[in-house]
Amino acid sequence: MNRKPLRVALLGFGTVGSSVARILVERPDLATHVQLTHIFNRDVARKRASWVPSSVAWTDNIDELFAAKPDAVVEVVGGVEPAGAWVRRALTQGASVVTANKMLLAAHAPELLHLAATYGAQLRFEAAVAGGVPLIHGVREGLAGDRLTRVAGILNGTSNYILSRMAGSDEPMSVVLDDARKLGYAEADPSADVDGDDAAAKLVVLAGIAFRRHLRLSDIPRQSIRPISSADFRYARRLGCTIRQIAMVETGPQRAGPGSPSRMPARWDGDVRVGNPATPAEERFHAFVGPALVLRGSHFGLNMGANNVVTIAGHYGGENSFSGAGAGGPATAVAVVSDLLSLTQRTHERGEEWPSARVASPPARPYYLRFVVRDRPGILASIAASLAHQRINLDAVLQEPGYPKDALPFVITVEACEEASLKAALDEIAGSDFHAERPLALPMLFDPVAQACATGAPELGEGERP
Amino acid sequence: MNRKPLRVALLGFGTVGSSVARILVERPDLATHVQLTHIFNRDVARKRASWVPSSVAWTDNIDELFAAKPDAVVEVVGGVEPAGAWVRRALTQGASVVTANKMLLAAHAPELLHLAATYGAQLRFEAAVAGGVPLIHGVREGLAGDRLTRVAGILNGTSNYILSRMAGSDEPMSVVLDDARKLGYAEADPSADVDGDDAAAKLVVLAGIAFRRHLRLSDIPRQSIRPISSADFRYARRLGCTIRQIAMVETGPQRAGPGSPSRMPARWDGDVRVGNPATPAEERFHAFVGPALVLRGSHFGLNMGANNVVTIAGHYGGENSFSGAGAGGPATAVAVVSDLLSLTQRTHERGEEWPSARVASPPARPYYLRFVVRDRPGILASIAASLAHQRINLDAVLQEPGYPKDALPFVITVEACEEASLKAALDEIAGSDFHAERPLALPMLFDPVAQACATGAPELGEGERP
Lengths: 466, 466
Prior knowledge:
Chain A is of the alpha/beta class. In chain A, 34% of the residues lie in helices and 24% in strands.
């Protein structure tokens, strides 16, 4: 075990990159394992930091960096290109890569994993999902003995900040979003966060971690949180719920393959592929990204601010939950440095591959339907008739006082139904002329564990703030 | 990687053992990695299960089992002996051991780890702390890049069931404990659970996982939850808190060693020892097991029923939290099977050792002091004077209406003070003749992360139950 330290080149010296360098500099105990040799950044003169030892070469010439033949490359540049070209170049010359780049992985994970396997390099990405939350090892090794069935999480801190603050304050989204921008939680253009693209990319990586399968990013259905109003939180509370942006993937219906003893998606356990991999055509997953009703006492409902939380459900072990800082330089850098250290420990791992799998239409679910109407007699009857045409059962009708007659929000919850039926009913309903806003449909995501947690938590709602 | 499957002998066919066998039988995809060859149990004829393949040999003769030279032994018998003798025997003949036995590890981990290293065997124990929660890999590898500073958890499901139910119901402990026995959450003699011995043993293992140091079980201070009354929950709520049995270990004050650049406890990162290990004499940890006031909105305050939760704080990454089923056959069995699979993947790990470390007196902390008195004038003045003698500052005095004059509970909270000063003051106070019950002192364990979580959670306390 007395190998030379791993020679590491750092691509990108922004928030995460500088935190990675900081940990490596501040922990001399790591020096025998990991040695930072190069830092690459555009306009590097502007970036140079005096606390970085003089032994580190600063460069803005990528060729110079690769010519030095680093053992490992840390890619914290972000974006699909040119980061992707640099990652390919590193792997092709046999350098292992540690990356925090969810967009690159969501787009090209299968290709990059194949490249790594081909050239005997490793590709590590603990930092790409839920920043500092140590998911990969816990899931891959700690839960290897289980059969995972569902992975769900709050993976976008910006959306969670917005929704958890709206839930507590009655403020409109525009006000909260402005504040989020001022506090640095949201970018000038928050589309990637609030419309679900960021969470969808992370979900592709998370599905890879949990099931070793690749879902196509464009196949992940996503819904924006933009239409959520303070009225929605008021109605959600009436239902014992709140609203969060949830990213979820679960094992879906499997087409029975001839002579296939297990139709569970095959998984890798530890580092050796185990199981009886179904052919890709057989495998389907349900996936979803968007605002959903969750129980207030569940791990999701209790998750506040920019924190991330991921729950993993298994056939044997039930549900486990991991939570922590989803972003931020130091927390993400811990994941990167941990990956670097794992490269020094596990040098003989066989590369893994992620075969593609399909995203199937969602299972039947209960939904929350919110209408904003110009009030007049007959609206409820008309909506109820359209739902009945599709054989969708109403569960509850809620109408809170205090709203204007010309923009009156009210809510109907419906029992579990197919998405296609719901869509047909809503298309018919949307044809009426009483709408002041487009109808909103949110899935209600309850699961037994979350419900048990909520039921067991009576002390939380006794009129005092925790 | 085309090795023969690991030949596994199972010691103990109770709840966990039979679940381990069940997973191995139900997952044929594991057969190329792990092969169950023997099941040992006393009075084995009574245990024999028809769903176990006939290739498995059942025995109540331990010599027969060891004569078969298994590659690995799963020890789920529990108790220090004879389990300890069997684990030693396995390691000595080069068989790796997977155990769920916290009592054995708390008593003898250093010796067993040394034995494993000496004979080239592995010792794995993911199942020994927080049953199904995949802690070890997450902490060891996922957080290897951080400097851990504190590990705290709710590790005893029985105590948490009792306290979380008392918090919500106003029932006295005797009633809740009786129900817990009926539901199978508590044993006829619940001492090990409620007095903290079970959590203390798990804490010793958790400290080993996080810091690779061994704390002596008898050194861990522990306090029983037995004196907690429904009045305590009422007062705790007034303070925004609730009460949980917490097990906690944190890096303590270090004596400066000459020329030691880092006085942080050295850790292992990945599998290679890194750092500048201080000599054992330099290392001290704070440890505590017992009921404590925690914020209602914190991970601890929100943990209900028999669930376990563990939070890990690091210098760089802040706090991460893991939660899930702390016990139960299938969840614990997932941890055992995961450990077995990891043995098939990582065959060349160097054995680790846990040098001893000392438990230091706790840091200065704020405390919750509850008195039950026969009311008369001058009591508060007398108590305040005793606290003042020790230079302990009062923070709040709380007295709720509705209690009888001859057994009146009231609460004083005090600012952070040394345990020794508090003890001196309480000794003086206990000498007075106005007490109807022995005074109770509980530490108030708040940390910035938990506080931020609580502050960010206004939607939880609006008069409705989540």
